[in-house]
Amino acid sequence: MSVAVRTLFFAAYRDRLGVSELSIDLPSGSTVADLVNELRGRGAPFDMLPEKPAVAINQIYSFLDEPLTTGDEV
């Protein structure tokens, strides 16, 4: 099984990355930290993302250890 999430980028991140949105599939049980690591592992320009960014899941501020579920907007 996998978890499909919609990842949104705003302001400076959107400008630096050149994208405003990505759909990403992660292994079941993945957390926000796993998503950040997946993105940073893609290399430039994603490797410029901080290791501990401020994030929200479905418009609610969340921590890096928060689990993700299919359909989440991060």
UniProtKB/TrEMBL annotation:
Name of the protein: Molybdopterin synthase sulfur carrier subunit
